[in-house]
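[agent] plan:
  1. take the single chain provided in the ticket
  2. run structure prediction with default settings
  3. attach structure tokens to the ticket
  4. add a short note for the reviewer (M.T.)
[agent] executing step 1
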Amino acid sequence: MDIPGLDAALGTIWCVGRNYADHAKELGHEPPSEPLIFVKPACAAMLSGGTLRLPADSRRVDHEAELVVARARDGSLRMAVGVDFTARDLQAAAKKRGDPWTDAKGRPGFAALGNFVPLRLPTRVRLSVNGAARQDASTADMIFAVERLLAHLDSRFGLRPGDVVYTGTPAGVAPVAAGDRVSALLGEGESRLSILVA
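[agent] step 2 finished; step 3 output follows
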């Protein structure tokens, strides 16, 4: 999959959990002392304008708006708005068993991506459902800043052009339902996405 504004094919989808203190608190967790990293499969990627089909085996899928950062082929850093969709009931069951979160985080369409633009921080991450605001926060509120996250990932795994990093979601995550229109943006709309839920 070629990603608009990135000039590179999609690589690994890296994700950071609990990177905003308010979000960690709303899920009943303490903020982490080190970045909490997980990975989504390539099949989870979906560009703006797509349709998210809710999995039949989940009773609750939540939206999580995020700043997404990537390195373009020319080495420059780029940013986009993204939505990390999560089957919250499946994630809770996996946590109880001590299993990975892949089944809850990696379904088709669970990594929505807007267009990439030059990285410019801080910025705001906003998400609405059917026009009603749900999430709105500054990336300055992240526990681990972008530079720290990229250095952490690069030192352990070696980031490549086309790899995308979902940097965590602020508070305000909530369920989506069939028929919902999920819209998200960075700043004043430099990067946008719109997803229909079915």
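[agent] step 4 note for reviewer: The mean pLDDT is 95.
[agent] ticket updated
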